[in-house]
Amino acid sequence: MERGSAKHGPRLDDQQQHETEGMTRGGGTTHAQEWKQPEPTLAPGEEGTAPTNRPPDHQPGVPRGLTPEGAERRSDLAKWISGTDVFPADRDALLSRAEMQGAPDPIIADLRSLPNATYVNMAEVSEALGYGTEERDQG
What we know:
Elements lengths: L9 H10 L1 H5 L42 H14 L7 E2 H11 L3 H8 L5 E2 L2 H7 L11
Antiparallel strand pairs: 1-2
Helix pairs in contact: 4-5
């Protein structure tokens, strides 16, 4: 007599048997995949955290060379003036694009304060506005 479910085939029966093997044998994990297991966490202040190669003044998620505020302002500005057909552009072209896109007043004010020059990319605009310059590793 063959054991199995009448609702699905033998392949699914075998898969389900494999997934529940830990429960039937005991003493082991009940997960079929190891990636489902949570990693142990350390309590706050507990020793053993992984060392980082990050400079002490660098915030995670912020490119080196920018402050969190500068990165946020650059990101907000890029929402209103970036695109494949924007650069190179001068101050008036960037201002015109931002106004056309309906940019908020602080963005318009920042663009009006730009020196009248031709900018090749967003990094040059960010630097001219004093947001900072993203440092790239030379390797």
